[in-house]
Amino acid sequence: MTDDVSATLEATLTAEVARMYQEVASNPDGDYHFYTGRQAAEMYGYQLEDLEAMPHGAVAAFAGVGCPIERARFQPGERVVDLGSGAGMDSLIAARAAGPTGRVVGIELNPKMIEVAAANREELGYTHVEFRSGRIEEPPVDDGFADVVISTGVINLSFRKGKVIQEAFRTLRPGGRAAIVDVVSARPLSQSIINDPKLWAS
């Protein structure tokens, strides 16, 4: 695959992913080909105590593929980066655990999701959380900022997965940790799947 073809495919993929999650943010109760909302969060093992503490809008627009929270083992005062923060549920759970002396930065591509996440943050009154516009391949976070990097169901949507992992480790301090939950394939994908942005975004 030439660089031009690769760049064109990546741009098409990114646009399709953004469109899909724009729809989830605008209509969280819609009918999608993947699990969303409270049903998904409970199925993936999120603690009921955490879900009850979150704004309805954060839980309703959840569209991850698993729960990184238990593996993250957040501690008071820690700094957390959430790659692909969506409507903010994981970021806000992290902020609840890290407390007011901690800091959480959510990175999100979709402007509507950032808008929803910011509203959810304001509902809780959390001042130690921010949501930044950016791509997980180039997260706008300083080197060594984070004690913990979390992510659920977004690395599989990237055309440059190796770059995402590299950047995740760049943002971690020495001795930091990552809790990543995602979709993987046990075998190489066919070119027809690779070339179909709708399948990438599923």
Query: So what's the oligomer here?
Result: single chain
Largest pleated sheet: 5 strands, parallel
- Work out the helix count: 10
Question: Which stretches are low in confidence, meaning pLDDT under 50 for 5 or more residues running?
Answer: none
CA(first)-CA(last) distance: 23 Å
Describe the structure.
- The protein is α/β, with parallel strands linked by helices and 202 residues long.
- The protein contains ten helices and five strands; from the N terminus they run αααααβαβαββαβαα.
- It has helices at 3-26, 37-43, 48-53, 56-60, 69-72, 89-98, 111-124, 161-171, 191-194, 197-200; strands spanning 79-83, 103-108, 129-133, 146-152, 172-181.
- A five-stranded parallel sheet has the order 3-2-1-4-5.
- Helix 1 crosses helix 7 (111-124).
- It is globular and about 45 Å long.
- The model has no long low-confidence stretch (mean pLDDT 89).
What would a concise description of this structure say?
This protein has 202 residues and is α/β, with parallel strands linked by helices. The chain has 10 helices and 5 strands, in the order H-H-H-H-H-E-H-E-H-E-E-H-E-H-H.
